[in-house]
Amino acid sequence: MSFSKVESAVSALADLYPSEYSFLVAFSGGLDSTVLLDALSKRFPAERLRAVYVHHGLQSEADHWEAFTRAFCSARHISYQSVSVTVPDAARQGVESVARQVRYEALYAQLDDKTVLLTAHHQRDQAETFLLGALRGAGVAGLAAMPFEKTVSYDRKPLSHCRPLLQVPYQALKAYAAHYQLNWVEDPSNQDVALKRNFIRHALLPKIHQAWPNPEQSLSQSAERVSESLGLLDDLAEMDLQNCTANHYQLALGPLVSLGMSRVKNALRYWAKTQASQVTLNAKVYDWLETSLQNTNPQAHPKLKQAQCDFYVYRQTLYALPETLPVDYRVAWSAFEPAQWYFSEPFDKRLEIDQAWPKPEFSDWVVRAMTDLEAEALGPKTQLRKWFQTRGVPSWDRNRWPVLEIDGKAVAILGGYTNFSGRD
């Protein structure tokens, strides 16, 4: 197997990303990322490269791997950073999944709009991912496996992630490492066949090789063809979402319900992919959502707890919210953005206050949560409850709804409610 396939794949990045772009390489010190970073260092100037080692602390050898990656980059004058992360309790998802999520979050945090994340996934990785998806009954998105290039949403910013070696056979990486006499580190957990990906790699793929000469290439091609179908579904979802109110934590599904659950699920998948990075979708979520959307009881507030967020359905709108919503907030009027505090739509900053109050540019206008005493001062509870219901405000927002405070006094509820009475 010729190692030139590695060099050709890396050289192609020059056409994809002009000189104003830099590359951040996820560098573990293993064979794959070592080959990628070495090939990059031979093709691009060092000032366009940066390597990041994510230290999970899950393996006793992690400090040794960090030292290896640091020395490797120093020898090539590549900017290097080691980022330590903590992997939380993985009881709900498994260590592999949680560690991967934490690792990517650490990498995304280092990016900007002119820095592209490069990871060293290759053709065998793609074949394994396709098989993993098929064996767990994945849909089109799962069978499309890993895209060569994608835009990810992190902290509500679009970021770029590319896998330049995705069509390169694993044997080409080994040939490259042998030709240039590279050293790398070995993660012993990669041999643990109790992990499903390792079982596919060490037990299943060798058996398939006995009947098919190049199964990795064939499986990778299948993933690519499924990816083309996924692109069409993305186009459909984008058109459907034009009719829906959406942001990074809520999606109004009412306009889509009459089109059938398949369209709802497709739009939801695309929304999570493009706007709501904290959302993980699976069959349990889809089944719960279908049941919740069919519930006609106006007093029902369906809720589903998940690892990354809690799901709610209210008036055919799906909310994906943190477990604990901010209640004790206090922010300047000019800086207050409802979406930053996970408030439901519709919402705006309309006010009904006396003209006698000073304008915001001449006074300290503050937005904070309404207190119980202030709610009582507005009149009968039924009156405020009716206003919330009329505006479609869900129950979890009502005890933290924002009021405007001027010179230490609450003067109005944001959203157009009546003045506070009894002011001095």
UniProtKB/TrEMBL annotation:
Pfam families: ATP_bind_3 (PF01171), TilS_C (PF11734). InterPro entries: Lysidine-tRNA-synth_C, Rossmann-like_a/b/a_fold, TilS/TtcA_N, tRNA_Ile_lys_synt, tRNA_Ile_lys_synt_N. It is found in: Cytoplasm. The keyword Calcium does not apply. It catalyses: cytidine(34) in tRNA(Ile2) + L-lysine + ATP = lysidine(34) in tRNA(Ile2) + AMP + diphosphate + H(+). ATP binds at S28, G29, G30, L31, D32, S33. Residues 23-202 form the tRNA(Ile)-lysidine/2-thiocytidine synthase N-terminal domain. Its main location: cytoplasm. GO terms for biological process: tRNA modification. Its EC number is 6.3.4.19. One of its GO terms (cellular component) is cytoplasm. Residues 377-415 form the Lysidine-tRNA(Ile) synthetase C-terminal domain. One of its GO terms (molecular function) is tRNA(Ile)-lysidine synthase activity. CDD domains: TilS_N. The keyword DNA-binding does not apply. Keywords: ATP-binding, Cytoplasm, Ligase, Nucleotide-binding, tRNA processing. The N-terminal region contains the highly conserved SGGXDS motif, predicted to be a P-loop motif involved in ATP binding. Ligates lysine onto the cytidine present at position 34 of the AUA codon-specific tRNA(Ile) that contains the anticodon CAU, in an ATP-dependent manner. Cytidine is converted to lysidine, thus changing the amino acid specificity of the tRNA from methionine to isoleucine. Belongs to the tRNA(Ile)-lysidine synthase family. NCBIfam families: lysidine_TilS_C, lysidine_TilS_N. This is tRNA(Ile)-lysidine synthase. It comes from Hydrogenovibrio thermophilus.
